[in-house]
Structure formats: C-alpha cells, structure tokens
C-alpha cells in the first residue's frame, strides 16, 4: 500500500480523499493555490504545498508544478479528484514517466473516452446500445446534410472533444443543417482545439441515467447500480439519486451489464461512470463515460455501503476489489442535493465569506463539505459549497429526511441553492420520480 498520497484538488473532494487516506493509514500531501491558503483541506492534510496563484492555469491545472510537489514531498501516488486534471491524459502520462501512480484509469481509456466519436464506435463494436448516427467524423457540411437525411430529423450535432453538453446543436430539419455544422465546427475549434463533429438522432425527452463501474488490475469489472441525474440546469447537475426511480428489474440489469461491457471494451481500471440517455419507453443508449470519481458518488456509497475512494486507492495500489459483483447489494434509496454558492433563482455565482454554517445531522444524513463559519468561497473555482446526502429505506423516506435536513441547514453570508432544493423536494413531479431533464424548466417559480 502507498505510504503517502498527493491530492491535486481542493474543497470538499480534497477533504473526502484525505478521509479515505486517514482510514487507510496513508499520509497526505495537499497542493493549494494562494486563494485556498486558509482552507480546511490545507489544515487537515499532513503536509501542504503552495503551488501558485489563484488562477487554475497556474495552480490546479499545472502538471509540472504538481509533479514537482509530489517529488519534493515523496508522494508515491496522486489522487486528482474530479474536475481540474481528473480526466487529463497529460497528467496520467507525466505520472507514468515520473513513476508516480495516477489514481485513475489507464491512459488508453482516458484517450478513447475523451474522443466521443471514437467512444461511440468502440461502444458499438462492444455491443453497447448507441443512438443511430455517424461512426466516422463528418468531413464537411454537404456530408452532414446527406447523413442527417439518412438518420432522420431532428438530429443533434456534437463535438468529438466536447462532452458534458458543451458544443451541441439541435437541427430540426434540412434547412438548418449546413449552417449548424459550420457554426458547431467553428465553436468546437475555438473551445476544444479540434473542430471534429459527429451526429446522432436527437431525443427530445431524456433521462440522464448513469452506472457506477469499478475495475481492478486483475481483470475484475463490476457495476454498483445506477444513479438518476436528470435534475440539472444547463448541464449542471443539482440533485442526484440512487437507484433511478421506476426502472424494471430487467432494464436495471441490462444497464449494469452494458456498463460493464463498456468498461471492459477499453480495459478500464479504477472508478468510472457510464452515462446513458433513456427515452420515455425506457430504452437506453450510451452517451459518454466519465473516467473519474464523480461529485455524486456518495449516493452510490449510501445505498451500497462501500467507500469508493478507499476502493480507488486500493485498486491503484494493485490490490483486488474488496467485493465481487454478487456481493453488491443496493439497499434503500439515497438523494444528494448540491448546495452551491449561487443565487437560487438566477444561478449567478455568489462567492464571499460564510458567516453562519450549521450542518444538519441525525439518522441517514451525510454532509460532504470543506465549508465552515468563517470560510471563504473564492470566485475562481466552481461554486459547490456542500453536498447534502440522505439515505432512507425507500425514496420517500430519503426525501423526507432531505426535507428535514434542508430545514435544519443554515448557510449565511452568501446566497445558496438551499431554497431551490426546498422547493424541489416539495414538487409533486419530483416526488413522483421518473421525470426527464426538462424538470427544472417546469418547476413553478418561488411563491407559486
Ligand atoms: C443527447 C440528447 C438528446 N439526443 N443526445 C447532454 C450532455 C451529454 N452527456 C449528452 N447530452 C444530451 N445528449 C441525443 N442524441 C440530450 C442531451 C441532454 C441532456 C443529457 C443528460 C442530462 C441533461 C441533458 C440536458 C439537455 C440535453
């Protein structure tokens, strides 16, 4: 097992990784920017190394600075958390060259899944369901027109190196295809440095269902059930839950099997998530794979009783998974609300100093956070302040506990999404379950 791990992240996930290291008796080194000098992870870690100014480019995204810190501290492994360098092929490659273990998947899996068109082809070959569309990049607007005609409108143009909903264009009919192709390619070139575009049949109503997978270095690949992440605004998830409400036992097992085939097709190792789009009939299609631990991993931990970050570290050290597929049991239901430093109506970021912070507690409640009274939410990074997670015997019980926890939680000094979560948890559509990604656009505004 590792003696010392460097954590290349900040905020709640840095605290979460430090906790898993502590439980395993592993020393921790945190790297931090000037903006995070007084943060909780810097206080909690055994060692802390300042790597630069607040700008992520010159700190949390700077591979040479992070590897230098690992070298100086004598860390044998790097945990990247999520965001920042978590899905960076470059970090994985430099780690390999420097003989530091990257706590994440092999480079090939990162490369294949980072190219969405290549991922689609690889999934098709592995027998994972995909939507009708292109297997090869589209060379020009004329080809886009021809292929869209074959696939049938509406279609969705997607950037091969986009993902997470960035750089997509819905095209309703033939009149819009050539213009949309040109603007999508130009935008993708500007945003991702590569203008490659592919297209798929567009589904107007989808649920976002994702499956947690895990693989060790000995060829064991398992799934830990699914999460429903359909409550989102502009591709920012707000509420996630496990299991996904209303799925049949057969759909659930087919999802799990498809996710394991997806992981095996790229020789996946460590924790990953296979995202699917589900149509109103319950059919599902591969969307993308996230090659990291995700923000919403606690809902899976709550229903399975597993510690996924502990498992990540063990697997990276070459140990076998501590469980087999038949040992995985999903018990009850869990819900996570993302408490962001944002105006709950406009979603405009609200950085600043937290002057009151009361964390809820009691049975079935978990709070993952680096926040406390006196903590500063800097304007330079994402606005996640805390993840509030509840578990119950079933979905209604988890939701009741979430309403109780949201009533108890107090964060003052900044605006947060707590009032929005209180409304969501009282919405009849939310409580019925099984809604699509348009849910938030239908939620009545405050006071109505
Ligand atoms: C789609 C789609 C409809 N049809 N693909 C957005 C994020 C990315 N992972 C996939 N996304 C979508 N792909 C086809 N062919 C609708 C979405 C989508 C969406 C997906 C998941 C969660 C929220 C979403 C919100 C809008 C659109």
Can I get a quick summary?
The protein has helices spanning 11-24, 40-44, 63-73, 89-97, 107-114, 116-125, 141-151, 177-192, 249-265, 297-304, 308-316, 395-408, 418-424, 428-432, 439-442, and strands at residues 4-7, 27-33, 47-52, 77-79, 101-102, 155-159, 169-171, 197-201, 207-215, 221-233, 236-242, 270-278, 284-290, 333-340, 352-353, 356-358, 365-369, 376-377, 384-392, 410-412. It has 448 residues and is of the alpha+beta class.
Strand content: 25-35%
Mean pLDDT: 97
CATH topology of the largest domain: the name is D-amino Acid Aminotransferase, Chain A, domain 1
CATH superfamily of the largest domain, called what?
Answer: ATP-grasp fold, B domain
Q: Give the beta-strand count.
A: 20
Question: What is the C-level CATH assignment of the largest domain?
Answer: Alpha Beta
CATH second-level architecture of the largest domain = 2-Layer Sandwich
Class from secondary-structure proportions: alpha+beta
Please render the helix and strand layout as text:
Elements: E1 4-7, H1 11-24, E2 27-33, H2 40-44, E3 47-52, H3 63-73, E4 77-79, H4 89-97, E5 101-102, H5 107-114, H6 116-125, H7 141-151, E6 155-159, E7 169-171, H8 177-192, E8 197-201, E9 207-215, E10 221-233, E11 236-242, H9 249-265, E12 270-278, E13 284-290, H10 297-304, H11 308-316, E14 333-340, E15 352-353, E16 356-358, E17 365-369, E18 376-377, E19 384-392, H12 395-408, E20 410-412, H13 418-424, H14 428-432, H15 439-442
Parallel strand pairs: 1-2, 1-4, 2-3, 4-5
Antiparallel strand pairs: 6-7, 6-8, 9-10, 9-12, 10-11, 11-14, 12-13, 14-19, 15-18, 16-20, 17-19
Helix pairs in contact: 7-8
